[in-house]
Specification:
With 129 residues, the protein is mainly beta. The chain has 1 helix and 6 strands. The structure holds deoxyuridine-5'-triphosphate (DUT).
């Protein structure tokens, strides 16, 4: 039983060996999210290629009122296996050295699309002043 707001780490009973260059990503299921508020805390959970332990899922009940009963065998999440690049980072001395782009340094709602996004992050509601 997962009470409203409660989280729990559940074992899946599954262990895998992903080839080098791949990773697994533990995603929530949309049906359980929409109907019950169930999600994965660290979504998506990352399964490294070298990991040989049991895949575990850190679940959270986001529903503010209803507890959720979980039973053995329930399909509570889904694993997406993807190819991943090995990045090689090169240090640069200035931001200009990164080169220009259309987006530049805009982020956190800079493109608009919702009324709440007209307030700058850090200067709007939800932040202490
Ligand atoms: O949802 C998840 C996320 C991770 N893992 C396992 C596989 C993964 O390869 C390992 C480490 O995950 P992560 O790197 O996210 O954990 P960390 O908190 O950074 O710990 P660590 O220091 O062990 O890397 O834990 C799971 O079983 N389920």
């Amino acid at each position: 039983m997962l009470e409203p707001g409660e989280r729990v780490v559940v074992g899946t009973g599954v262990a895998i060996a992903l080839p080098h260059g791949y990773a697994g990503f533990v995603h929530p299921r949309s049906g359980l999210a929409a109907r019950a508020g169930l999600s994965v805390v660290n979504t998506p959970g990352t399964i490294d290629a070298g990991y040989r332990g049991e895949i575990k899922v850190c679940l959270i009940n986001h529903d503010p009122h209803e507890p959720l009963v979980l039973s053995r065998g329930d399909r509570i999440a889904q694993l997406v296996v993807q190819r991943v690049e090995q990045a090689r980072f090169v240090e640069v001395g200035t931001l200009e050295a990164l080169g220009s782009s259309e987006r530049g340094d805009g982020g956190y709602g800079s493109t608009g699309g919702h009324a709440r996004l007209s307030t700058a992050v850090g200067h709007g509601e939800g932040t202490e002043s």
